[in-house]
Structures are given as C-alpha cells and as structure tokens.
Amino acid sequence: MIRKLESFIKRFYLILIFIFLYTPIVTLMVFSFNDSKSMGKWSGFTLRWYSQLFQNARIMEALKYTIIIAVISSVVATIIGTLAAIGIHRMKGLPKKTLLNINNLPVLNPDIVTGISIMSLFIFIFPLLNKIGINAQFGFTTMLLAHITFNIPYVVLSVLPKLRQLPSNITEAALDLGATPGYAMRKIILPQIKPGIFAGLLMAFTMSIDDFVISFFTTGPGVTNLSIEIYSMARKGINPSINALSTLMFITVLTLLLIVNRKEFTSRGE
C-alpha cells in the first residue's frame, strides 16, 4: 500500500511538472489560431496570423539572420569545442583544472556581463583594424563571432562526459595496432563521442536562437534576430504573428527530435 502511494505521488509530481512546463506553450499555440489580437478572449478560429507571418518583411528578415547565425555559429562552435574538449581531456593536473574553470566562467557569468565584455573588445579592436584599412563596424560579423564565442563552452561541457566514458588507453591501443593519430581520431574517438557532439550542436543551436542580451550588444544597423525584434515589438504590443512563428518553430523542433530518437532506437534494434 505504501509503495503504491509513493508511486502515485511520484507520477503525480511528474505530471504536475510537465503541466507547468507545457501549459504556456499550449496556450501560445492555441491563441496563434485566435481571430483576435488579444489573448484575453477567444474570438474564433483563423489562419490569418500564419498568412501575415510570411508577409511580414521585418519578421522574415529577423528569422533569416537568426537561422543563418544559429547554423554557422553552432557548426563552428561544435568543431572548435570538440577539439578543445579532446585537448582538455588529455591534459592532467593543474593545467586541466585551470582550463576547466576558465571554460565554466562564461557559463556561470550573467549574459549581460558576457555581452558587454564582447562589445568592449570589439570597440577596442575596431580602431586598430581601421588603421590597417579594414572597415570594422558592428553588424552581422560581430554578432556571429559573439555567438560562436559563447557557444563553445557549452559544446565542451557536452563532449567531455563522453570522453570520460572512453577507456583510458583506447588511443594507445589503436596506435599500437598500426593506426595513425588522424585515423584513430576519425574512426575510433569521434564515433564513440558522437552523441555528445550532437548534443553540443543542438545546445549551441538552441542557445544561439534564444539569445537576446549578447545579440543586442553586438549587433549593428540593419542586422537583427528574432529575440531583438520581439523585444522591440513588446513596447507596442506583440504581433500575433509571433505566436504563429513560435508554434511553427516548436513543431519543427519536436519533429526533429522524434526523427532523431526514432533513428537512434532503430539503430539499436529496439
């Protein structure tokens, strides 16, 4: 009887957590079909916000920059972060602890500190670049570099646990069997840590799409992403087309997760 009660409490608690997590998302999705601009009342079913979404040049422009920056920054950060994680994993003693603490600093720092720091760095570098004939100013490149910078630590933290699960002598064993260091990396190490790399890629992609503070401090005229665009809309009232866009993004991410999990279960034979 006591075990059944404990099991019921655990399940009820889990269901309660999911309700709190997904109720706002479900509400947003429902009101993306609301005929009224107000989320205070239901005025009937409509698809006009989805139609207006693709006709809104500002939102489409922000979406374009958001996706481009997220894709490029996540891929570059994943490559750099994976190589950095492998290097850190092979280190020992104080140097390894020092680099791990340095890697954790951007994760623990408030975003506003990171954003202002990167902005200050660009302001310091721009005059030096202008002196040698390079026209440096805030814009797409500065935002992209900022996103790559703050994504790298998350990739490192995603890959390191997979490296720790590997046998300590797996690389030496491969080299003793005649493999070159490059071959051992490509055919032995990387396939073993692929789940961690993929998790780091997804985290970097999500962090890039979600970021506002760092983007706000490192962007320039004519370059904006969704978070900045939505913030500018909040002063006058959120356009219901944003609800439609958020719904489409949520469905896309959910579909990708289902496809990835299905492939993983299929490869395991489950």
From TrEMBL:
Matching PROSITE patterns: ABC_TM1
Residue ranges constituting the ABC transmembrane type-1 domain according to the UniProt record: 63-260
Bilayer disposition of the protein: Multi-pass membrane protein
InterPro entries: Bact_Polyamine_Transport, MetI-like, MetI-like_sf
Coiled coil region boundaries: none
Location in the cell: Cell membrane
Segments crossing the lipid bilayer: 12-33, 65-86, 107-126, 138-160, 196-218, 238-260
Keywords: Cell membrane, Membrane, Transmembrane, Transmembrane helix, Transport
CDD domains: TM_PBP2 (cd06261)
Domain of life of the native organism: Bacteria
UniProt keyword rRNA processing, yes or no: no
Pfam families: BPD_transp_1
Family to which this protein belongs: Belongs to the binding-protein-dependent transport system permease family. CysTW subfamily.
PANTHER family: PUTRESCINE TRANSPORT SYSTEM PERMEASE PROTEIN POTI
Name the record gives this protein: ABC transporter permease
Species of origin: Clostridium saudiense
Organism placement in taxonomy: Bacteria, Bacillati, Bacillota, Clostridia, Eubacteriales
